Amino acid sequence: MNEPTLMDKVVSLCKRRGIIFPGSEIYGGLANTWDYGPIGVELKNNIKSAWWKYFVHEREDIVGLDAAILMNPKVWEASGHVAGFSDPLTDCKECKHRLRADKMVEEYREASGDEELPKNWAGEKTPADDLMYYIKSKHLTCPKCGSGEFTDIRKFNLMFKTHQGVIEDDSSVVYLRPETAQGIFVDFKNVIDSLHLRLPFGIAQIGKAFRNEISPGNFTFRTREFEQMEIEYFLPESMWQEKYEEFKTASWNFFKNIGIKEENLRWRQHLDDELSHYSKMTFDIEYKFPWGWGELEGFAYRTDFDLASHTKFSGQDMSYTDPITKEKYTPHCIEPSFGADRTVLTALLDSYTEEEVKGETRVVLKLDKTIAPVKIAILPLMKKDELVEQSRSIFNDLKKHFMVQYDETQSIGKRYRRQDEIGTPYCVTIDPETIEDKAVTVRDRDTMEQERIKIENLVEYFKEKYSR
Ligand code: ATP
């Protein structure tokens, strides 16, 4: 049997430890849907909070928003999604496996090192004939069955369509939003008018987005329902380059701050012909996933495309008048757009560690303390009444300040292993001596060193540890 890969190990750890489960599992699942379990939801919330704190609370020039997922369908006409949000699709004639033709090209180039690109290469916008010519001339094959026979390429719109209300006709069509960004653009005026903000400023939003992806996969990397963390930063045109640089640094630092190893991150600039219809410049932050580099954040300069387009389609003037200079213009916009689920996956893969300890393999998630799902585990050494009582009292004190887990099941070794596997930075053990000396043992996840700390000093001790 083949050795399990890093990805196999992380997927199995996620299931075993309540981090991520396959969706609707008791009904055989629903392809590539995933549920965050009790530990996973804490990790994801910590990542979203770290992002919100860094980009919203710690800045004076960014405010938040939580817009509706269902929007007037005209929004998606104005944004260009109805006409242009599609991927080139082809089917394997042998096994009927459905593939994205542009991704086949990218995967082939990544794996083979072949630098040649299809004629008129523009990512998913490459003309179908050029993609097919490339696929045939390079003898690309189906990853499922190895056949080299594919159907003609056709365009497939990625938006999920549904109906609002009881009548299912064309007039009731609504879409599940494919990005959170448009909720921000349509509320631009409301935010300006209610908060009297002066440009430049940004609006941030975290929320679900839906795309009917042709080939979802690689665990939570590409799913049809996912969460984005997006900022639209509005500015006069003259300022975009300066702010673009500022946000490039801020984006990189966000990943650094949550502990992602910098050697596994890189910037990749989109080629001119690869740019989306709205973008003049795009850089992605990519992570070195086990299968190759993959996008974590897309950062586009969207010009004044969106507000100008909404002015045109809605008939409402989305321009801005500077309160001091009285200059009137349609704001330009830069957009750092992060994936919450991909960041969770990155944190898991990046922190997964196996160590040899006394001849045994210790699995540890060396997550940054700020995002660790459980901050402190309280572990009474035995289930004796006085130990349990003392442990409960420590738990009650600490839980007011930290996400704490109380665990008295199984042997102490098994409990340590469980906490290591979910990345808990500190375990507190309460032993018979505690009753005498009013002190506990604190074990550090990474060094496994143990320290004896007085109970009365515990809250301060951990506040200091978590002070960053
Ligand atoms: P890709 O090229 O991987 O399809 P994209 O360029 O379409 O991504 P954007 O539209 O820039 O992605 O979306 C911003 C972010 O949202 C991405 O960087 C990614 O983190 C996240 N994201 C996009 N699509 C998905 C998806 N299907 N599943 C999970 N996260 C996604």
What does this structure look like?
33% of the residues lie in helices and 27% in strands. It is α+β, with helices and mostly antiparallel strands. It starts with 5 loop residues before the first helix and ends with a helix. Bound molecules: adenosine-5'-triphosphate. Adenosine-5'-triphosphate is lined by residues 211, 213, 222-223, 226, 228, 295-298, 337-339, 341-342.
What attributes characterize this protein structure?
468 residues; alpha+beta; seven-stranded mixed beta sheet; five-stranded mixed beta sheet; 15 helices; 23 strands; 27% strand; globular; binds adenosine-5'-triphosphate
Subunit arrangement of the protein: single chain
What's the number of helices? 15
Strand coverage percent: 25-35%
The portion of residues assigned to helices is 25-40%
Compounds present?
Answer: adenosine-5'-triphosphate
**Nearest-integer average pLDDT:** 94
Trace the largest sheet across and list its strands: 3-9-10-16-13-12-11
Q: Largest sheet at a glance? A: 7 strands, mixed
- Spans with pLDDT under 50 lasting ≥5 residues? none
Instruction: Tell me the total number of β-strands.
Output: 23
Distance between the ends: 45 Å
Task: Decide which structural class fits the backbone.
Answer: alpha+beta
Radius of gyration: 26 Å
